[in-house]
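dude i think i finally got it to work??
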Amino acid sequence: MKIRYAAAALLTSLAIVATTVSTASASADGGSVVDPTRGAAAWFKHDGDVIWSRDLKADGHSAVVRVYVPSAGIAQNLWNSNGSGSTRSQIYGDAIPEGSAVYYQACIGEYGTKEIIACTPGWASAVA
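look at this
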């Protein structure tokens, strides 16, 4: 029984390492992070290193993307206060080195006070 668990743990570790190596070696768009309940969406495109924020709900809250790129020292919020149905983008270009991990969350918040109310659980990721 212990051998089975040890083998499963080893295979899981190898899968994580293989995934990490292949992801870090090439640029890749990130998946869309959508929270229809709260009314926000976010996604990343590696061509030009662009992050997108979309407001999906007419609720008086702004859509916000929390962006974190540790290798570039970037930790900021991209606010989209243009109302339901609007999309806003931020081009990072050369500010993010090629091959860097980019993390992001879709959130809602109060634009006037810059208070973030709620975000999608966890962080989505992409490679610049």
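Residues 2-24 form the longest helix (23 residues).
im so relieved honestly
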